[in-house]
């Protein structure tokens, strides 16, 4: 081989090694990130998921979190291991292709329940978004089946000239050749579905914000807190995933397939973390005591606030009592919370109306949503 050929082989070698290193490092980093986030939220998971009655959302949480962790670990093993046979490579690559969508669909079901609750358990909305999800799943499955049929599996990613140049290294890594552009079609139904869900979440946010402005202090303050939570979780989830899908399509169309795989690993982890934290954040909100000092200062009523048929709270109505415990007194609309106490020993339903239950009673509900207007109340599991 002359010097020009040697230089070309070395450039190909270093380029291949660089791509392989990027793939390996990204898969390992994604696995570490998923496990690290799970460790950070494990105490909340035990308190808000393990110690609560089992529900559909609990099942979806377990699928998203634990199946997701297993998948990213298997992906890391797939890209780091150098001793897999072709058969093992095929099995692991099949898991790598199909597995992430299990967590994606679990998260999407959680968000469907969230939207269902945000729209007051509207059957019309459910009749629209459920077939939409089924259509999205069908489109993704069809594309993946076509994509898998074009794949040819190998456990040697190095080009032939490099293998001849360095035969003693015996570097092997699971890989596959396929029509990579076909995989971009997966993001068409996914992108469209997330766009519709994002718009519906914005509509629900605007409606809830308007309802909060029309309510009095007691309900309005709770609704304002709800709007903040929806903005931080639901809207943020849809926006982040919407942007991630757009970036993924751009990378698949403009970069080598191996670099696109680098992004895929982090997309999977993003779905796992976002879905899990959505459940934990909303459950933490629902089991948080609604005390006076839990409302922003801007939500406090001015001295001249009008309470309609309700009387403004007098001084003795804010007497010291355990936070989260409401007592029914002579005033049917009086809530006796302690402004100085922010923590409660037991959770209660934060859309509770004062004076509706007996002295010292708690509502032990596993999955509830925040209050809405007086004419409707949301109680779907989220």
From TrEMBL:
Region described as Disordered: spans on this chain: 296-341
Q: Can you tell me where the transmembrane regions are?
A: 66-86, 92-113, 125-148, 186-206, 227-253, 259-280
- Alphabetical list of Pfam families matching this protein: DUF6533 (PF20151)
Q: Which UniProt keywords apply?
A: Membrane, Transmembrane, Transmembrane helix
Domain DUF6533 span(s) in chain numbering: 26-68
Q: Which residues form a coiled coil?
A: none
Q: Does the keyword Membrane apply?
A: yes
Name of the featured protein: DUF6533 domain-containing protein
């Amino acid at each position: 081989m002359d010097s020009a050929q040697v230089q070309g082989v070395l450039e190909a070698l270093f380029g291949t090694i660089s791509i392989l290193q990027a793939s390996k490092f990204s898969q390992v980093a994604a696995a570490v990130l998923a496990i690290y986030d799970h460790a950070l939220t494990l105490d909340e998971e035990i308190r808000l998921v393990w110690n609560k009655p089992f529900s559909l959302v609990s099942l979806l949480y377990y699928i998203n979190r634990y199946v997701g962790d297993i998948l990213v670990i298997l992906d890391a093993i797939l890209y780091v291991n150098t001793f897999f046979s072709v058969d093992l490579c095929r099995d692991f690559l099949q898991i790598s292709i199909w597995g992430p969508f299990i967590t994606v669909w679990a998260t999407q079901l959680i968000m469907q329940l969230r939207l269902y609750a945000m729209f007051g358990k509207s059957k019309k909305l459910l009749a629209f978004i459920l077939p939409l999800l089924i259509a999205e799943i069908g489109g993704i499955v069809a594309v993946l089946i076509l994509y898998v049929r074009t794949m040819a599996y190998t456990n040697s990613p190095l080009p032939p000239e490099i293998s001849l140049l360095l035969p003693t290294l015996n570097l092997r890594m699971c890989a596959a050749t396929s029509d990579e552009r076909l995989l971009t079609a997966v993001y068409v139904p996914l992108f469209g579905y997330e766009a519709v869900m994002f718009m519906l979440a914005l509509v629900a946010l605007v409606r809830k914000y308007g309802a909060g402005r029309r309510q009095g202090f007691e309900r309005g303050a709770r609704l304002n807190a709800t709007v903040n939570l929806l903005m931080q979780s639901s809207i943020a989830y849809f926006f982040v995933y919407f942007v991630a899908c757009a970036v993924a399509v751009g990378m698949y169309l403009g970069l080598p397939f191996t670099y696109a795989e680098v992004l895929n690993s982090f997309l999977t982890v993003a779905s796992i973390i976002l879905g899990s934290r959505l459940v934990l954040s909303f459950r933490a909100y629902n089991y948080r005591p609604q005390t006076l000092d839990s409302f922003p200062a801007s939500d406090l009523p001015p001295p001249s606030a009008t309470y309609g048929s309700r009387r403004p709270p007098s001084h003795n109505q804010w007497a010291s009592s355990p936070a989260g415990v409401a007592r029914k007194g002579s005033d049917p609309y009086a809530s006796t919370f302690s402004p100085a106490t922010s923590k409660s020993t037991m959770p209660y339903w934060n859309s509770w109306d004062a004076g509706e239950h007996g002295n010292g009673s708690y509502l032990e509900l596993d999955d509830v949503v925040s209050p809405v207007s007086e004419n409707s109340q949301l109680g779907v599991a989220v």
